[in-house]
Design goal:
The chain is of the alpha/beta class. The protein has two domains: 63 residues, 2,3-Dihydroxybiphenyl 1,2-Dioxygenase, domain 1 (Roll), CATH 3.10.180; 54 residues, 2,3-Dihydroxybiphenyl 1,2-Dioxygenase, domain 1 (Roll), CATH 3.10.180.10. The protein is built from two helices and eight strands. The longest helix is centred in the first third of the chain and has 11 residues. The radius of gyration is 15 Å and the shape is globular. It starts with 7 loop residues before the first strand and ends with a strand.
Length: 127
């Protein structure tokens, strides 16, 4: 078996409009498909990061809160590769998105930091 790449990750959000604005208007994801699903009482938003990677956003009514940050079983965080962590942090902070202090990954030796989406999902920047 040969798995080529990760096609997409899927997250559940509590406020569709806020999360759509965050991922599309602030982080720059492109909208592929956007559907309200009355039978499931939710919205499903498919976003594209690049030619290979997508993000699915599900916005059901009243989803349960995340158990802990970030050590609950399941998805721990999403990590994005960037050319410059410093430059990306400056851009995020200009948009009102605070970031943790930049540090060096002890295994890769590369710069990294974390910030959060509107529901507190940890998002990582990594060079």
């Amino acid at each position: 078996m040969k798995l080529d790449s990760i096609h997409h990750a899927a997250i559940i959000v509590s406020d569709y409009a806020v999360s759509r604005d965050f991922y599309v208007n602030k982080l720059g994801f492109a909208v592929l498909r956007e559907n309200q699903r009355p039978e499931k009482k939710d919205w499903k938003l498919d976003l594209r990061l690049n030619d290979e990677t997508e993000l699915e956003i599900f916005a059901p009514e009243n989803p349960p809160k995340r158990v802990t940050r970030p050590e609950a079983c399941g998805l721990r965080h999403l990590a994005f590769h960037v050319e410059s962590v410093e430059a990306t942090v400056r851009e995020l902070e200009r948009l009102g998105i605070p970031c943790e202090p930049i540090r060096t990954d002890s295994f890769t030796g590369k710069k990294m930091t974390f910030f959060s989406d509107p529901d507190g999902l940890p998002l990582e920047l990594h060079e």
